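Thread: quick sanity check before group meeting

JM: Hey all, I'm pulling together slides for Thursday and realized we never actually wrote out the predicted structure for the chain we discussed last week. Dropping the sequence here so it's in one place. If anyone has concerns about the input, flag it before I start.
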Amino acid sequence: MKHITSITSGVALGTAGIAMMSILAGCSSQQEEQQTTQNKYLVIEQQPNGKYVVVEEMPTEGPSRAIIRERDENGKITERFMNEDEMRALAEQEYKKVQDGTSETIQSGGEDAGMGIAGTILAAAAGAMMGNMIANSLMNNKNFSRNAASANKSAYSRSARGGSSSKSSTRSSSTKKSFFGSSSKSSSRSSSRSYGS
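JM (edit): ok, ran it. Output follows.
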């Protein structure tokens, strides 16, 4: 009778553990969704090559907005304010180019950091400007993802990418980690050894 009781309690613990893991997974995916769609405050700076990069990025409770730093022909930097409506208009314009295949955000081979102003805004704030579904579909495009990373030099973006890039690198790695941290190659070697020798 004790044996049956221990089995049922083990099953109950296992079920509770699975339920807890699914709840935690739901919470983390909800956080990621909120992060994608959250409004942004951006500082976008024109580079000497004429392209733009995000140098500062912060989530904001208010509407999305941006400070645009641009260089004149003498290299002097001026700043201008861009409100959410202007940002959305540029993002929508660039998204139309994505759909017809002409957007620089989805082109391969761009070695220089940065893009045009519309591409940079779409890359940095697609969720806030276009909605979560569009942002997710864009980030699934390898070229868009790479170009977005090259155009966003903010510390906020680097920390957000740090988590996702480490996940993707472990997925693409040929040596998979087991639950206890050892690689599958080393665990298969150790399992072939005989114990007690």
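AS: nice. The radius of gyration is 24 Å. The longest helix spans residues 2-37.
JM: adding both to the slides.
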